[in-house]
Specification:
The structure is a single chain. A hairpin with a 6-residue loop joins β3 and β4. The longest helix is centred in the middle third of the chain and has 33 residues, at 228-260. α4 packs across α9 (228-260), α5 packs antiparallel against α13 and α5 (115-138) runs antiparallel to α16. The chain has a 6-stranded mixed β-sheet. Helix content is 61%, strand content 6%. The protein contains 20 helices and 8 strands. The chain is mainly α.
Length: 540
């Protein structure tokens, strides 16, 4: 009973947060507010039934709204109705991408977009979204990239709407103050205050736009009339939309699960997100994902199960059904303040500063942030994904091959270059590639190995430790056998150590059975070393 009560209270709190956020995110996507409401209802219900996180709230997010707007902007010639059809079709395609990935058990690719790239992307996206809210607060027209936005904003100082500025600042200050008390639904408080203010102030008469009518009548999804080339472009942009959406959602789900000792499965999350986005697109809704701010608010409100999400869906439906006309009167400066407040966590520079402090991946993260700011949301997103791939290939494509030495009289072998106190037997060369060997790095790895062997011309035995390689593709197998042949031609003998079973089977099928014989292949470096230099214990 206490569990149900806690979830009911948390669900109602989340509903009060999601209504103003959903309406605000619809403005980012350039869609009427009802499409965000439909998406929130579908996302909450579907995830509550299929998802596994007790705290994740699946609803429209600011990042997915910005990406959707960029996708639609790629079809400037489309009419208004056609542009909406393009948006909903992109959501359906993204849902199908999720489902295909789930059925193909591709959840292991959840880390495909690295965290530094995702953090940089989120920071750049937050800067872009926040800057785009400022014209709504000031009551002016300004658009374009962040640089042109700033030029447009400060170029119209005389046209700034001071009432809108005051409304936005008061709303934002209220949200920041209430944030100190997680049990209070700050967005809902600001929503109520904003609606109440419309009865005291005629905002439209003062040049301030309001949210507009929320039409909750469902319509059948429309299929856009696109040429084959445009369909191809739509699919190409929907795939990275799904990728970024899943990276963001999985990061939220996983962090909450780790915090509470809960087990979650990436493939199951793909299924839940895919079904939610597919159904959202079919009811003409926006893309949905497990956003950090809403999920954290659900956790802070005391949720203990997925029931809170289902209660939030009921709360949103009741709130819109009873107070939809009132919500439609929300001033745009209030909505802009809600968006800015939701993006403040992404504007926190601490994650980027940490990368500089540990001197790891900071340039990748900053490049991703600058790409979003300078190239736009969609191109920046594509650049960030490409950056993840390039960074991974660069790391895997230039591995370090270590020459190992023995620590004292132990059975431990370490990189001799980093441990000058280790001992290297002049008769034996022990090598270890630092990365798994595959087609992209096999040739360069064995080129490094040949140079290390050339530095010890007196050594007649070479031990190759392959502990990092779970398997070897055909290129790596060929490179290994060529390396063994080269050593044999120099009068040297190659031993293998720590060879995995799959790699062992690959060598056997490749006709290199001699390399995996019991007298040439060992489970540990120590055993291979003892076989190569049986008198080693007295060789110092």
């Amino acid at each position: 009973m206490a569990v149900a009560r806690a979830d009911i209270l948390a669900g109602l709190s989340v509903a009060g947060l999601l209504v103003p956020e959903a309406v605000a995110y619809a403005t980012i996507a350039g869609l009427p507010p009802q499409h965000a409401i439909f998406a929130a209802l579908v996302g909450l219900i579907v995830y509550g039934l299929l998802g596994r996180s007790n705290f994740a709230i699946t609803s429209p997010t600011s990042s997915s709204a910005a990406i959707l707007a960029a996708v639609v902007a790629g079809f400037p010639a489309a009419a208004a109705g056609e542009r909406e059809a393009i948006a909903f079709t992109a959501v359906i395609v993204a849902g199908l991408v999720f489902l295909v990935a789930s059925f193909a058990r591709l959840g292991s690719l959840s880390g495909f977009v690295s965290r530094p790239v995702l953090r940089g992307f989120a920071f750049g996206l937050a800067v872009t979204i926040v800057l785009k809210q400022i014209p709504a607060i000031l009551g002016i027209k300004a658009n374009g990239d962040p640089f042109h936005l700033l030029v447009g904003i400060f170029g119209q100082i005389g046209a700034w709407n001071l009432l809108g500025l005051a409304t936005g600042l008061i709303s934002l200050a209220t949200l920041l103050i209430v944030r100190r008390y997680p049990v209070l639904p700050g967005a809902f408080i600001v929503l109520v205050a904003g609606i109440a203010a419309t009865y005291a102030i005629d905002f439209p008469a003062h040049g301030i736009q309001i949210a507009g009518r929320i039409d909750i009548a469902l319509q059948a999804p429309a299929i856009p009339d696109l040429a084959a080339r445009e369909w191809s472009r739509l699919v190409q942009t929907a795939v990275p939309l799904a990728l970024i959406l899943f990276a963001e959602s999985w990061g939220t789900v996983r962090s909450l699960a780790l915090r509470h000792g809960q087990s979650v499965d990436a493939n199951r999350e793909l299924l839940a997100l895919g079904t939610a986005n597919l159904l959202s697109g079919l009811v003409r809704g926006m893309p949905v994902g497990a956003g950090f701010s809403a999920s954290s608010a659900n956790e802070a409100a005391g949720a203990v199960s997925r029931l809170s999400g289902l209660v939030a869906a009921v709360g949103i439906a009741v709130l819109i059904g009873l107070a939809g006309p009132l919500v439609s009167r929300l001033p745009e400066p209030v909505l802009a303040a809600v968006v800015i407040s939701a993006m403040l966590h992404a504007l926190d520079p601490k994650p980027l500063w940490r990368l500089w402090r540990i001197d790891r991946d900071q340039y990748v993260a900053c490049a991703a942030a600058l790409a979003v700011i300078g190239l736009g949301v969609l191109n920046g997103m594509l650049f960030a994904i490409a950056l993840s791939i390039v960074a991974t290939l660069r790391r895997l494509g230039s591995p370090h091959v270590a020459s190992l030495g023995q620590l004292d009289t132990s059975r431990d072998f370490v990189d001799a270059a980093r441990h000058p106190d280790s001992h290297r037997d002049p008769r034996v060369i022990i090598l270890r590639p630092s990365q798994p060997l595959f087609f992209f790095n096999a040739e360069s790895s064995f080129a490094q190995a040949r140079k290390l062997c050339a530095d010890q011309p007196g050594a007649r035995t070479v031990i190759l430790s392959l502990e990092e390689s779970s398997d070897l593709d055909s290129t790596a197998l060929d490179a290994l056998t060529e390396f063994e042949a080269l050593l044999r031609g120099e009068g040297r003998l190659l031993y293998l150590a720590r060879l995995k079973d799959d790699a062992r089977m690959g060598l056997e099928k490749a006709g290199a059975a001699a390399l995996i014989q019991a007298d040439r292949c060992y489970w540990s470096v120590w055993d291979a070393y003892q076989a190569a230099a049986p008198s080693q214990e007295t060789s110092r």
